[in-house]
Specification:
Jelly Rolls; mainly beta
Length: 101
């Protein structure tokens, strides 16, 4: 499990993990909006993903919500093994990630 606080500048939230089977993103804040973004892959246009609340390629979470990515179709591993970044719309915002193998 990873967690901490973040402001309006993106930071790394979870390292790359080739053994990842499931990853859970949580926004425990009462008012802040946060976004999680893959750190490594590029979009099909070749442009890198810039971590931003409501930005392209970003998984934006409203207050007190979460999101789960897990392997599907009988796959043993999640194919999104890249590192993940996090950013918020206000300073001192909490975040949590459960990274499961």
């Amino acid at each position: 499990m990873h967690g901490g606080t973040v402001g309006t500048s993106a930071i790394q939230a979870a390292a790359a993990n080739t053994l990842r089977r499931k990853i859970v993103f949580i926004n425990p804040n009462a008012t802040a909006i946060i976004a999680f973004c893959p750190a490594g892959p590029n979009r099909d246009t070749g442009a890198t993903v810039t971590c931003a609340v409501n930005g392209p390629g970003s998984l934006t979470l409203q207050p007190n919500t979460g999101f789960v990515l897990l392997a599907s179709n009988g796959s043993d591993r999640l194919t999104m093994s890249s590192a993940w970044n996090v950013v918020a719309n206000s300073g001192g915002s909490s975040w949590t990630i459960w990274d499961m193998e």
